[in-house]
Design a protein that fits this description.
Length: about 260
């Protein structure tokens, strides 16, 4: 059945929220994230090989924790987004948005008429027909989120037009790919990258669209809070797990001398 989108409500209320990327294709990863207390999770299908059944299990697990499940798609394929939403995803994260038309097409694929052109199906979110389909489509349009990632020079240049697309619920920064596009690969704290990110954030604020920042450095949260940002990503669970394992091993080896 369709569940309230807790992330969307938190954004409207201006609450501080934390998310993480799920890059390990298993429901156990979502359990760890849920038990840790995160507010939302972005299941990654752009860089990760993952089958549809596993994605649905991951979404179902997120639901059991009241953890808002978003899915990052590989591209703006309408049918791919349709199946993910029919599987229970509460939002679609669109990578590397560079022009407003791409975003507008994605919104149309994610929303039912009159806001879009999503094909109607009474699957998991619709309670398999338990509720009125007419009521379900209205509620689904309210709950489903569309998130745009800005990851290139062109995306930064087009951010004003991108923010003007109706149906955009949040902008997520992609500093890593953006650094590459700006010619300073993987230098996510390079002045050119920071300047671009701050330009994106200012534009989203002017359009009253929530901005989500990755916390890559210890001082990043305070810096973004000063700009009015309260939605944060902590990277992906693989990297977090790796660093924790590495730290534990280092400490154990150091303690043996």
């Amino acid at each position: 059945m369709l569940r309230p989108n807790r992330l969307k409500r938190a954004l409207v209320e201006g609450k501080e929220v934390y998310g993480v990327m799920a890059s390990m294709p298993t429901a156990a990863s979502i359990e760890l994230i849920g038990e840790a207390g995160f507010d939302f999770v972005v299941i990654d299908t752009e860089h990760v090989l993952i089958n549809p059944e596993t994605i649905e299990h991951m979404i179902r697990t997120a639901e059991s924790y009241a953890l808002t499940p978003l899915v990052r798609v590989a591209d703006a394929d309408p049918k791919a987004m349709l199946r993910l939403l029919d599987g229970g995803a509460q939002g679609i994260v669109l990578p590397n948005v560079e022009v407003p038309d791409t975003l507008a097409s994605a919104v149309a694929a994610c929303k039912y008429a009159p806001e879009g052109q999503r094909s109607v199906n009474a699957g998991r979110p619709g309670g398999f027909g338990k509720s009125s389909l007419a009521e379900y489509v209205v509620q689904a349009n309210k709950e489903v989120m569309v998130v745009a990632m800005i990851e290139s020079r062109r995306g930064v240049e087009q951010i004003e037009a991108i923010c003007g697309v109706p149906g955009l619920d949040m902008v997520l920064e992609g500093a890593a790919d953006l650094s590459q596009s700006l010619g300073v690969t993987w230098q996510t704290t390079h002045p050119d990258v920071i300047q671009a990110l701050e330009h994106i954030q200012r534009t989203t604020r002017e359009h009253r669209i929530p901005y989500c920042a990755f916390l890559r450095q210890p001082d990043a949260k305070g810096r973004w809070q000063a700009h009015g940002v309260h939605t944060f990503m902590l990277g992906d669970e693989r990297g977090i797990a790796f660093r924790a394992l590495q730290k534990s091993l280092h400490e154990a080896r150091a303690g043996s001398h």
